[in-house]
């Protein structure tokens, strides 16, 4: 397990033949050097004789796991998902992102933060004034790109059709925020695998847009039909529990009930979830890869982002 910003980039060469479990899968096809602005996680200075000549992520053998999310941070979204609140008319925000947008918004000053992606999103679509008092060049009323953490973050995610999944200093957990609130993830980070992306068919529940197409992002999303949007949201309903660390949350709920007689709303919600969670999914993927040589052949023959090796139905 390599939980650093950029995953297993710094993995010693002696362990590289193993399966790397990470939160961010950089294949180094586009972003070849460390992109983190957090110096302690920067791997560029590790000598070649220690690190070896490997990428940060090998999609044939390695696995990107979802990041942990506290029940306090996702309980609102989980409740809406359990009650099948997913239709377009119930989501009045077309696109949503709330996070650090760089120096133009008095945010992180480093150019390499977020590989410059959040900065470009803010420049194009920012819906709150930057420090010069300007909105994004393509500001639109139903597009919310906010630089300061909203007090209504969960509610706004659950009221949105599409949600941005952009890097921070590496992985940022925005994929999990989107999915656990029933919002279709819009991934912009070229050559980077997100959770389960080399296992599930991401196109069935998400959207991937190239970094060069950032100025066209909203135009691309508006061209997706309502039928396709509802299909993606229905598929989110089928997989969201695989992005959730349910069992440890339920154990904590049981501890609180035993020690303090405390039963919070999220404890009731999570105890009612029965589908396979992150850990169960991980075991299934490892078992499948161990016993199915065709997986490797199928993945290695893939030439397109729209194909990810194991068909979704083999695991889901």
TrEMBL record:
Keywords: Glycosyltransferase, Golgi apparatus, Signal-anchor, Transferase, Transmembrane
Gene Ontology MF annotations: glycosyltransferase activity
Pfam family, one: Exostosin_GT47
Localization per Swiss-Prot or TrEMBL: Golgi apparatus membrane
Residue ranges occupied by any Exostosin GT47 domain in the UniProt entry: 3-223
Species the sequence originates in: Genlisea aurea
InterPro entries: Exostosin, Exostosin_GT47
Membrane topology label: Single-pass type II membrane protein
Family label: Belongs to the glycosyltransferase 47 family.
Stated name of the protein: Adenylosuccinate synthetase
Cellular component GO terms held in the UniProt record: Golgi membrane
